[in-house]
């Protein structure tokens, strides 16, 4: 009887050691050249998101509508991510405004906040169309984002966006509290370039490395 109890205890101890080893191994198997691990995932309450309910993995884009690389990411990486992981309920995708390029970046961010708050069903069409409206040869500091252009973009998509309300928000430079929240996240997670992509609490070094993105998603989904 005593021997059996001792065997059970030893078995439990071994099992616990194995579990601890697996946890430690899984937490350290991401190459630092691929991604940097933070202690927590960014708080995403109130941020624009796209998901099927209950998605277990959060992918965050820190993006700037004035950023040519963000446009490229939205046109190349995002469609594949959406088809393979968002549409099938694995990934909750979140956009965080990252206005790195002056007043135009801030204005576009305010427009997106207005649409998300008041017409969320139209947000992702508006989001996509802003990126697509970037001039093909633009540099970061080329001027093209204006109130008039943003209203034209909103009017060009099939949506329920209230143009008068959007215009009022743009003129008032509304939603600065929301953008301040974004800026706090940018600072907390040491975002220094756009786009920056995070998978839960892992910040990718190369946002265009789709294979690395997939590996991180699969790891976090297990």
What does it look like?
Helices cover 53% and strands 12% of the residues. A hairpin with a 2-residue loop joins strand 5 (196-199) and strand 6. Residues 18-25 have low confidence and may be disordered. It is built from eight helices and six strands. Helix 3 (102-118) runs antiparallel to helix 4, helix 3 (102-118) packs across helix 6 and helix 5 runs antiparallel to helix 6 (163-172). With 222 residues, it is α+β, with helices and mostly antiparallel strands. The chain has a six-stranded mixed sheet, sandwiched between helices. The protein has one domain: Glutaredoxin. GO terms for molecular function: oxidoreductase activity. The chain crosses the membrane at residues 7-24. Pfam families: Thioredoxin_4.
Short description:
With 222 residues, the protein is α+β, with helices and mostly antiparallel strands. It has helices at 2-27, 68-86, 102-118, 123-132, 147-156, 163-172, 176-188, 210-221; strands at residues 35-37, 49-50, 57-63, 91-97, 196-199, 202-204.
């Amino acid at each position: 009887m005593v021997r059996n109890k001792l065997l059970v205890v030893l078995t439990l101890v071994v099992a616990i050691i194995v579990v601890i080893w697996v946890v430690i191994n899984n937490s350290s198997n991401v190459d630092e050249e691929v991604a940097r691990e933070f202690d927590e995932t960014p708080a995403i309450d109130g941020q624009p998101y796209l998901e099927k309910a209950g998605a277990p993995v959060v992918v965050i884009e820190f993006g700037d509508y004035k950023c040519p690389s963000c446009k490229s990411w939205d046109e190349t990486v995002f469609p594949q991510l959406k088809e393979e992981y968002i549409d099938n309920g694995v990934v909750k995708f979140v956009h965080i405004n990252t206005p790195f390029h002056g007043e135009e970046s801030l204005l576009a961010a305010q427009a997106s906040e207005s649409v998300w708050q008041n017409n969320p069903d139209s947000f992702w069409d508006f989001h996509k169309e802003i990126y697509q409206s970037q001039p093909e040869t633009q540099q970061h500091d080329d001027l093209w984002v204006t109130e008039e252009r943003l209203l034209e973009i909103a009017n060009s998509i099939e949506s329920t966006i209230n143009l008068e309300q959007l215009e009022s928000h743009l003129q008032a430079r509304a939603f600065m509290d929301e953008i301040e929240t974004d800026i706090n996240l940018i600072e907390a997670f040491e975002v220094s370039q756009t786009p920056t992509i995070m998978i839960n609490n892992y910040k990718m070094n190369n946002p265009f490395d789709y294979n690395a993105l997939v590996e991180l998603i699969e790891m976090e989904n297990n």
